[in-house]
Amino acid sequence: MNNYDKLNNVSCPVYKKCGGCQLQNMTYEQQLVFKQNKVNRLLRRFCTVEPIIGMALPYHYRNKVQAAFYTNRQGKIISGVYQSGTHHVVGIDSCQTEDKTADEIIVAIRKMLRSFKLTTYNEDTGKGFLRHVLVKRGFATNQVMVVLVTGTPVFPSKNNFVKALVKQFPQITTVIHNINPYPTNLVLGKNQKVLYGKGYIEDILCGCKFRISAKSFYQINPVQTQVLYNKAIELAQLKGSETVLDAYCGIGTIGIVAAKKGAGRVIGAELNPDAVNDARVNARLNELRNIRFFCCDAGDFMCDAANDSEKPDVVFMDPPRAGSSEKFLSSLIKMSPKTVIYISCNPETLARDLDYLVKNSEYRVQKIQPVDMFPHTSHTECVVKLTRATSRA
Ligand code: SAH
Q1: Which tens digit of pLDDT belongs to each residue from 314-344?
Q2: Ligand 1 test: best mutation among 271, 282, 302, 331, most atoms within 8 Å of CB?
Q3: CATH homologous superfamily for 28-57+221-391?
Q4: Which residues are catalytic?
């Protein structure tokens, strides 16, 4: 730790090596100012930016934790994260952004490996066993999923391993064995087997129940997700008869919350088939019949829907970091919903997409609300409301 870090209260010993918490040299208040300034700089030209909504307790907020496993030259097994931009594993036992139980489970698995004579995977030789561990915890239900990702398919003494793990952590409700034999940056491979439990966990957000499987996207900060979703629904001003489109819907969370809060009919579009499966189950879990999910590219879906003269009143769109596509945005303009609620985890691509909409249509930005979903990192989430300057004929 150098003097600069001491001055700024950096408490994490691997802050520089890990690179995950880019803003840890700032106090939380300074981080919020930093993010506000960033959003202001990128988006102020569209509309005044509301003050960012920070997190009351900005620690241990991540409900999903993954660790890479590696054996060093001295034969010591290390678990942790890849040093940013490299494939060197930085050992981490606990992290101030991650769920404490998830961290404890990962350390326990590392300690169990030797007694079960299990090796770690070596990326260079393609030999060895354990590659990653992924843990997801439902904060509201305390259900825990553990995914053991291995480079080879044979899992010696798997039943005893799972038994010993669940004995130590009775909160674990499901254990999955995922096989990833390829040289790839992706953590999860295609094939997996459920070793224990149902193969998914459940969580509750905004009073709705959600099933989450290993490969589906689920927001990683559930406390702030509720703030974000409530804001998005509030801005949509649903009256009860609207048709709502939830684009890039993941496991259907936004659409389902909108349906519960009174939308007349909801349609969801999502590319990942596992997430779409979860979304369909989630509609049933919440006893909703007025909701349908489609597994497809959101741009293709919009294009077809606009040509079919589908007329949603409100479109929620929540694309990944790369933002939306021109196909999606041009079809959105053609579809011409009264209100668009754009949820974005990347203000740069958000600015690009808003530029496109403002230049090519009568949509204007009415509200920009930043929400801090990722304390200590430089990532910033925003929810934006757009409406048409003139009403549809
Ligand atoms: N709205 C959801 C998910 C947001 S993350 C939530 O709040 O949880 C973005 C989602 O977009 C992911 O589920 C990802 O699988 C999906 N996605 C990525 N590219 C897509 C595309 N081209 N078409 C449709 N969905 C896509």
Answers
A1: 999 999 999 999 999 999 999 999 999 999 9
A2: 271
A3: Vaccinia Virus protein VP39 (3.40.50.150)
A4: 345
